[in-house]
Amino acid sequence: MEPDPQTLTQFHILPQPTYVDSLRFLPPLSAFDRHIAVASFNSDTSTPTLTLNSITPPTPTTPPTLTPQSSFTPSSRITSLKTTQTPQQNPLIAASTATGSVHILFPNPVDGSFESEVSVPDNVLHLGRITCLDLLESGLECVSVGEDGRVNVISVGDSGLDYRRVVDGKGLVSYSAVRWASPMEFATGGLGNCVQWWDLRRGGAPVSQFKGNWGQGATSGIIHSIDIHPSRKHTCLAGGSNGNVFAWDLRRPQQPIVLSGVDNGETATCISESDVWEVQYDTFMSASDHAKLSSIGVLPAMICSEDGMLAVIKQGEEPIELLAENCAINCFDIDRHNPSDVICGLEWESIALLTRA
């Protein structure tokens, strides 16, 4: 399905030579440059690659292009990718892998090359796959979670990476998503549609927990993605199995606000019936959205799904469908410096670039 022309002003699909695992906009290296970090995997050679690409904007007669500036080969396939800026306003990239390593890369602001890299080797932080990591906005610390039930906080310093283990679940629990809320707080998600809130000032255990009971009593779902808005850190946005998207408010921890799906008889429009792979708060708003911002219970959210949906969900309104593809949309990112722009990674080895009106 073609995108709604009233929603999008530009839409381009760029075929790629390899499978796109994840992608992120990079904070600007300079005033006139835009870059995208892309984690990809060559299934023919079993080679993972992290590439930094510059974006050439489209013209009325030519499509946009992605030009590789530099590349890095991690220890194994990348499972999670995040970008931010250091306190010195330098961009930073963090990637985790399927064999338990974490890599932090520092792009050169002049030519986009990877100026330096520090890492924690395989099977030090986690035994096996790291399912997700997240970077603090300052870039000084990241938190990682894995299928082994471990939660680690990694500090980025001049001499390399140090880490401390918050908890070791010894495989009795499994985490699939994590997101910082503040330098001392973060949320995790995992099996059973479970969301937990952690406070590093209060020991190595969750301080609050919600376990969803979705879809007529089924509790086998998984939380795939979490987001927390910087101005409303008490509200956690989560997306997972069977098209479920909800907001978890710490002030009412056992009363989730269902945005898509069904929970204990409470029904919301279900934009997708398959796995929601990623959720992010959508910072792109119209003039009418800004006018009613103070009265909005849950800020607008963007989701992508296994059945090829990219959509914006607003509480109490019909979802806005941006894309409906014939393949899974595995990941997306909204440009925080220009939120009208969105990039997506499609299962059919391609990247979609969207610009909203």
TrEMBL record:
Broad class of where this protein is predominantly found: nucleus
Family annotation (InterPro entries): WD40/YVTN_repeat-like_dom_sf, WD40_repeat_dom_sf, WD40_rpt
Bias-annotated ranges (Low complexity): 67-76
Biased composition (Polar residues): 77-89
Residue span of region Disordered: 53-89
A Gene Ontology cellular-component term: nuclear envelope
Subcellular compartments: Nucleus
Biased composition (Pro residues): 57-66
Keywords of the record: Nucleus, Repeat, WD repeat
Record has Repeat as a keyword: yes
Name of this chain's protein: Transcription factor WD40-like family
UniProt organism field: Helianthus annuus
